[in-house]
Structure formats: C-alpha cells, structure tokens
C-alpha cells in the first residue's frame, strides 16, 4: 500500500491512526454487531458517540458552558445564511471584513437579508494580506462583525483579532479549527466545515454564545435556526452520524496522541516554518502572502511562470505529492498542511522543491 502526501485544501488528510481505528471498527463497533454507519441515531450506543464528541471538543477547545456546540450539515456555505438569519436581528445591520472569496460569499448572502456593509477589504492586492481595522470603522449599531479567520484560498490568517468593542464577533474558522488554541470567549459565534481539520465532509460545527440564540428572523427556516439544533442537542433530525464518529476519533487523537492544542500548534508551526523558510530563500519559488499574515494551514506559492507551475504540479503529483495546484481563481501552487499532514510530508515537499529548483534554473 502506497499512501500519498495529500496537500488538498479539503477534504484533506486524516490521521492514519484514525483511519485504522475506523477500519477495525467498521463491521462491528465495540461489540454492537453493526457499523456506526448503520446505527440508529436514537440508539444508546450512538448517543454516547455524539455526547463524547461534544465533550471532547469542549475540553480540547476550552469552550465555556455559556456556549452551545452544534453538529450541523450544509457546510460552511450554509452558515453564511444561518449567521445572517440568526444574528442580524436587532438593527438588521452587519459589518463584514472581506479577506477573500469565502468572506465575500458570506457578505453577499447577508446582503440578501439586511444591511450588510463591507467595512474593509484586501482585494486590491489579491487578498494577500489582512486589512487593518480599528473600532471606529464598525457601525455602532451593527448586530455583529464578521471575519473569515483563516483564508483557505489565499493563505492569510488573523494572528490578532479585530477590536469590535461590544459588537459580537462572528468567525468562519473552517480551515483553522483545532490547529491552535482559540479564545472562544472573544467571539459571539464560530463555525467550521469539518472537512479540513476534523472529519470527512458532511459535518459543520457551530459554537454559539447562548444569549445570541433564539432571536432569529421570522423568515428563518426551522432547519436554519440555531435554536432548533441547540434545544435538541443536535438531534432535531438525523445528524451526519458517521462523520461525527470520525470527528470523535480525530478529537481523541488530538487529546491522546498529540497532547492538545498547544502541542498541535507547535507541530503546525514547525511544519509551516520549514516551508516558509525554504520559500524565503528560494530563487525560484515565492510565497504570495505578506510574512506577518501567513497562515499555518494553507501556503500558496508561485514560480512566476505559469508553464513552470504546471510542470511542477505534474511532477509533484507523479512523486506522490498530490493536490498541490493552487485554487482555480489564483493559479500557482498551494500546499495545505493541516493537522494530519505529518512533518515528513512537508520534508518530502521541500526536498522535491529543492530538486525541481536545481533542475529548472
Ligand atoms: N469557509 C472557508 C474558510 C472555506 O475554506 C470553505 C471551503 N473550502 C468554505 C467556507 C465553504 O465550505 P463548504 O464547502 O463546506 O460549504
């Protein structure tokens, strides 16, 4: 069996130990005589799985009791509508910082339901930096301020959060959840599609401060109302059962094998440093993001020559370094080095880049 190093932006690699456990438990989950795939979501056995997953997430992310954790479906994209329908509820106003396509999509969705304002943007330089903001840029009567914390396509991240004063900060953390500790108390709500750092596709996590739940717009569909899911402990309808089970295994891996999010951050920094240091010293490859806003998870880079980029992607793929092509809107390359990418994978990539550089000078 030859497993590749998969640099995909998502769905992406899962820890090998998790895949092995899932394989071992596939036909008979812990003596139940059935796969988790086949199990009723109302069964006692499954109830323990979903409760354990929530408890582990709360413990690992240090989520305070006054925040609800919800296991939802619909991906990050459905959250764009849910955020607006649930939180644009006092003055029907929300301020958005546009740091890339995902933030822009969220903003456009909110504009369908109320007065959404783009208060800052980094589009002038192809989203290669995080725009500076200060409190005075936000409307005092905005119901919330929205950011996309880690910009998967462009490779930027908020190392420092915007100061929004008393206005709740809402963040899309799809591509950085569980990559390092986050102070949940700084946010009104957080959400993430699970298919990058947590589980296969199909699961979306929402973490919402309790006082923000229960005031959705009248037009909000039942399934898009956080209250529906918060009140039912994520069992209002059939949840993505198997994906939640894999998320539980990943959370156990982070807790027991890695040793928590401080350790996870250390490992991620070590991987990212190896790649960024190489890019900073290369005569062929160049990172596209300003150093102070670089993501630990997604590292876009270019040679400056589209033909050479294509050659690199092709040869890297043949060498077992797959899905390294940049997003179709940006071109070049992008290495997504999420939690489950081993250090050896980044070493293999950098070695390959060195060789390619020597051969294509
Ligand atoms: N937000 C971010 C930061 C993303 O990277 C993505 C997908 N790559 C999305 C939202 C959209 O997620 P989904 O495909 O789950 O709707």
UniProtKB/TrEMBL annotation:
Q: Which PROSITE patterns match?
A: AA_TRANSFER_CLASS_5
Q: One Pfam family for this entry, by name?
A: Aminotran_5
UniProt keyword annotations, A-Z: Amino-acid biosynthesis, Aminotransferase, Cytoplasm, Pyridoxal phosphate, Serine biosynthesis, Transferase
Coiled coil spans: none
> Where found?
Cytoplasm
Q: Which cofactor does it need?
A: pyridoxal 5'-phosphate
Give the residue range of the signal peptide.
none
The primary site where this protein sits is cytoplasm
The pathway entry for this protein reads as: Amino-acid biosynthesis; L-serine biosynthesis; L-serine from 3-phospho-D-glycerate: step 2/3
Q: What InterPro entries is this protein classified in?
A: Aminotrans_V_dom, Aminotrans_V_PyrdxlP_BS, Pser_aminoTfrase, PyrdxlP-dep_Trfase, PyrdxlP-dep_Trfase_major, PyrdxlP-dep_Trfase_small
Q: Which residues carry this modification: N6-(pyridoxal phosphate)lysine?
A: 196
Residues given in the record as L-glutamate binding sites: 42
Enzyme Commission number(s): 2.6.1.52
Quote the catalytic activity from the record: O-phospho-L-serine + 2-oxoglutarate = 3-phosphooxypyruvate + L-glutamate; 4-(phosphooxy)-L-threonine + 2-oxoglutarate = (R)-3-hydroxy-2-oxo-4-phosphooxybutanoate + L-glutamate
Provide the family line: Belongs to the class-V pyridoxal-phosphate-dependent aminotransferase family. SerC subfamily.
Stated role: Catalyzes the reversible conversion of 3-phosphohydroxypyruvate to phosphoserine and of 3-hydroxy-2-oxo-4-phosphonooxybutanoate to phosphohydroxythreonine.
Q: How does it assemble?
A: Homodimer.
Identify this protein by name: Phosphoserine aminotransferase
- GN (gene name): serC
């Amino acid at each position: 069996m030859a497993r590749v190093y998969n640099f995909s932006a998502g769905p992406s690699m899962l820890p090998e130990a998790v895949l092995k456990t899932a394989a071992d438990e596939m036909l008979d989950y812990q003596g139940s005589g059935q796969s988790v795939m086949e199990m009723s979501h109302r069964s006692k056995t499954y109830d323990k799985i979903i409760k354990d997953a929530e408890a582990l997430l709360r413990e690992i992310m240090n989520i305070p009791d006054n925040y609800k954790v919800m296991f939802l479906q619909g991906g990050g994209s459905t959250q764009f509508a849910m955020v607006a329908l649930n939180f644009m509820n006092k003055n029907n106003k929300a301020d958005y910082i546009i740091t890339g396509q995902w933030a822009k999509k969220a903003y456009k969705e909110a504009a369908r339901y109320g007065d959404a304002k783009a208060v800052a943007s980094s589009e002038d330089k192809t989203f290669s930096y995080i725009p500076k903001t200060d409190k005075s840029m936000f409307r005092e009567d905005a119901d919330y301020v929205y950011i996309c914390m880690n910009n998967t396509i462009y490779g930027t991240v908020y190392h420092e959060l915007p100061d929004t004063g008393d206005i709740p900060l809402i963040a899309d953390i799809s591509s950085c959840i569980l990559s390092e500790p986050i102070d949940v108390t700084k946010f009104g709500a957080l959400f993430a599609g699970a298919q990058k750092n947590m589980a296969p596709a199909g699961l979306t996590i929402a973490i919402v401060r309790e006082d923000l739940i229960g005031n959705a717009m009248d037009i909000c569909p039942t399934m898009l109302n956080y209250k529906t899911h918060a009140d039912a402990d994520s069992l209002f309808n059939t949840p993505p059962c198997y994906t939640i089970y894999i998320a539980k295994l990943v959370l156990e891996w982070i807790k027991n094998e890695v040793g928590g999010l401080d350790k996870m951050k250390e490992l991620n920094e070590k991987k990212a440093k190896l790649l960024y240091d190489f890019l900073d010293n290369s005569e062929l490859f160049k990172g596209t993001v300003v150093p102070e806003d670089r993501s630990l998870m997604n590292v876009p880079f270019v040679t400056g020559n589209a033909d050479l980029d294509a050659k690199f992607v092709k040869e890297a793929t043949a060498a077992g370094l797959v899905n390294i092509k940049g997003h179709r809107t940006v071109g070049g390359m992008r290495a997504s080095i999420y939690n489950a990418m081993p250090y050896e994978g980044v070493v293999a990539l950098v070695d390959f880049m060195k060789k390619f550089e020597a051969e294509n000078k």
